[in-house]
Fold these 2 entries.
Entry 1:
Amino acid sequence: MPTKLILDVDTGTDDAVALMTAALSPDLELVGATSVNGNTTIDYTTENTLRVFDWIGLPDVPVFRGCDRPLARPQAPRGMATRIHGDLLDLPPVSRGATLQSGHAVDWLIETYLASDGDIVLCPVGPLTNIAMAIQKEPRILEKIPQIVIMGGAHDHGNVTASAEFNIWLDPEAARIVVNCGRPIRMIPLDATHRALVSSEDAGRLRALGTPAGEAAARFVLKRIDGYDATQPMPHRPGAAPVHDALAVCSIIDPAIVTTSFIPVDVEVDAELSVGRTVCDFRFRGGKPANVEFATDADEPTFVAMLLEILGRTA
Ligand code: BDR
Ligand code: CA
């Protein structure tokens, strides 16, 4: 039986690969996608999500538009992620009928979880605004969420500040609510995603698959490599870049693709230098119980092989 899944996305380049992977994997049943402000504005993240499904021939996957700004902070300055994502993805406008559903993403999440059998994994790969809003508005959804697999967080190094990862940093108050929600949480932070890079040679292999998903993934990976090499090159690995959000999806299909530690994790929300840092208590010094399965490593060859196998499929 495929695992049911909802993806919450701020669709830029790696979210797009995650969406295609989730939609085309025979091991997953993508129930729908919710968009959120993040890599770019909500208008673009929503439009990009629709374009991805339309491009791969799955225009009927439900897409709901979500929050347009963080929970408790003003909108973050634009442009930080431009080189790696841009605003509109390099995909043609919708032509096969992908249409935005009516209603707000937060309300759809609440309705869908309350009506569910408690079997839909929630996978947020953008700022956690929609998820925190849904929990606050209707806490009874929590007992219906079997697991939350988050792309976000960082222990060793940040990517937007010295110690913070973008998704958590953009809306730390929301992230704090989600990591402390009491449900099983698996976090796929930079510590793992930077261990599973996709190279320009891999992009060539994706393109050679000859499928819409392979072609789009090749484009996005090459854009990411260009952006990373220019702004935050991977140590000792020029010509390769992380595809963070897709690793989170692959870790739902094959949990062994990442190595995790079950530890107490909280989010710094009020700090001069480290706002948005995920504070990881690997030695249990704070006296709190473990709440997060925090990934510290990932299996790059398996990740790339999974992408090649799944994105070689057509709808
Ligand atoms: C995360 O931030 C976004 O730019 C990416 O889509 C990913 O979800 C990585 O820090
Ligand atoms: Ca993302």
Entry 2:
Amino acid sequence: MNIDKEEFQRQYLDKVAKLHGKPLEETSDGERYQALSSLIRDYIGQRWLLSRRRQRQGKQVYYLSIEFLLGRLTDMYLINLGLRDTVAAAFFDLGVDLAAILESEEDPGLGNGGLGRLAACYLDSMAAESLPGHGCGLRYRYGFFEQDFVNGRQIEVPDDWLKTGFIYEFRRSDEAVEIRFGGTVTPELNGKLRYRHENYESVLAVPYDVPVVGHLNDTVNTLRLWSAEPHRTDFVCSATNRNDCLKTIEYKNDVEAITSVLYPDDSTRDGRVLRLKQHYFLTSASLQAILADLARRDIPLTRLSDHVAVHINDTHPALAVPELMRLLIDEHGMGWDEAWSLTVATISYTNHTIMPEALETWPVDLFQALLPRIFVIVNEINERFCRELWQRYPGDWDHIRAMAVIADGTIRMAHLAIAGSHSVNGVAQLHTRILKERVMSDFHQFYPDKFNNKTNGVTHRRFLIKANPQLAALLGETVGEQWVQYPCDLLGLLPHAADPAFQDKLAAIRRWHKSKLAAQILDATGVRIDPDSIFDTHVKRIHGYKRQTLNAFHIMHLYNRLKADPGMDLTPRTFIFGGKAAPAYRLAKLTIRFINALADKINRDKTINDKIKVVFLENYNVSLLEKLLPATDVSEQIPTASREACGTGNMKFIMNGSVIIGTLDGGNIEIRNAVGEDNIITFGLTADEVLNIYERGGYNPWDIYCGDERVKTVLDQLVNGFLPGGPDEYRPIFDSFLHHGDHFLVLKDFAAYVDAQKELERRYRDRRHWLSMSVRNIAHSGKFSGDRTFTEYAVDIWRLRPEAPVRCYCSADEDFARAEGGCTLSRRPALQATLSNATYN
Ligand code: 26Y
């Protein structure tokens, strides 16, 4: 966007006056933020309108997701509009602290983890690539909870992110649609079989649109968030009729509950009903809007799949399959077969996890009562699908039952998603292989062509340019500014990997961020950490398979060694944790309590000369991650191999030059292939070894407890009063390892992890060597940009021709040559020259 500093200042001061009626000097940071965001909203509005007009003709992608973990938007808008430098300079002149203003923004946390953040990354990448791709989600009244610690325990506080309003949303009441729950359906034969749906509860879905601005281009896409509102016509409340009034209030509360919180507690039947309501509400509203838009564009429904791609982010929106069938058949009079082939051709599905508890199923009775017409359709899909299976496997009932959509009184959403879509993808090579060979092997045999891999990617604009502007500038000076558009240009850093002058600049940037983070941590926790210690960061959701306990056990072991030998030669280290535990996940919450207690014990101990410090930062979210990325030396990516579908934190950290200590799982494997095995520290069981143990047994954690003194000491310390909080407090953790089988194989990997940590420290002590590793991680991170992933989705799955030619996402060993865009190494001659001169690793 073209606007100079003086003009911006003029417009900004004008906005301050109009909004607040007082001079800038008298405004608070919050008021200054309001004025800035309101001005940005004005800028975007006009571009949005033009972009929508331009995009009308092309094929549109709709990415349906129950989570969008957006993070703060203002700074990203400035970067993508090309205004950040101008605005920073303008504020500097006005004597205003831009960073402080930006801290006033709420962090919209409409998601809980990787899947939700990935959805947000892809929105950014789609707009950057000028692809007409839009998000469809829910406008939760409360975000994923805010985490407070009280005596080291996680307390969940409602995240009231809308309390002061959300400036970047545009309510579109005129595009509201009706959603129907419950009631009865009766078949009617009137030439064609039709269903009459009566006595249902009607809910209004009102869209709130959030603009998604492309990076330095004209594209502005839309994230549409649906909000549940009562139907005005159902609103009867008069003083003379108390019963009606109570019913009305009950109805209003029921309706508003639909978009009240993400993942309502599903331990009760009511809670499960609410979750299913959310899923249907999201899919039905989105599909109704998509078909309405198609009609506005004068495109016949029979051409639906040529003009629309609907992508479902895991199975939460898998009701898109029967709902699209319903709309085509009931609302538009189409026959089953035509509706089915259009549905399959339109919908594609990404699986994000093989954890059994996340493979969704619904009890038939609950489903049928809430969605009677959808149930009839799912039943029909199941019957037809089972007939097909019968043709292929005649008489093999076990096989058919294993693959059916409905079996044993439950509806299996993954099966519905696979049968009803034309593409099923995993999110890393290993994950896709496990899906094909194990978790979904029956389906892979039946539909070999549907399965494909799309290794995740993340937006380098947020996680590098926004989070670490100093590093971004250094990269620009070194490899040329084009790396922003072509992240694979970062390979041009390789010739500088061993250059002391370049390394020193990188080190100075990291040191600056470490000291800033240290000050913030002191402020937030009262713990003083040394900016010259190794910053070792483990941030992600708290879950057994992510193995925060493995990290904690290693810390305890280090501490024990230090106590035994206070003069031990150890490079000072700061262990940083962050992450939320699902409110109902008892053991994960106890893990937080345990690590906080450990931190307390270690940080207070004056005898270890501050050699190790441990901090667990409260309320981990996107904004906190952005502060940690540029200050982290070591990134912990240590899940039980085979359990982490991909992981995306790993990618964000290497972009900032952190070195990973990790297991051979998910995206770590591809990162190792890209950066080279000398530039990542890997350890532990492989996925095949883990899966063998899961299938055949043969692992007894007591063997390790009894055979490895270090493990015995650490585990005993959980229950012998070593930790503040009492000896029984942490017994469930102790029991989970020794009495419940150590399901995630923490003890089994302990020795390998301790060795890997020693190796890490050895390498860190050679400063030049460590920095060269760091540079090589950044150099190879371009491949993990979401722009690369999205181009693959666009070409392979959605068959979408991008407005702009497909860009090149090459790495040293691989050339993502794409048929449609003709993306080859030869399109980047400068890069090719650099590559042929460079030595890899
Ligand atoms: C139980 C059900 C309601 C449910 C709720 C949340 C099921 C799944 C999820 C969330 C899954 C998730 O976030 N998966 C993560 O997706 C990332 C993006 O693909 C992966 O990088 C990461 O490995 C995976 O754990």
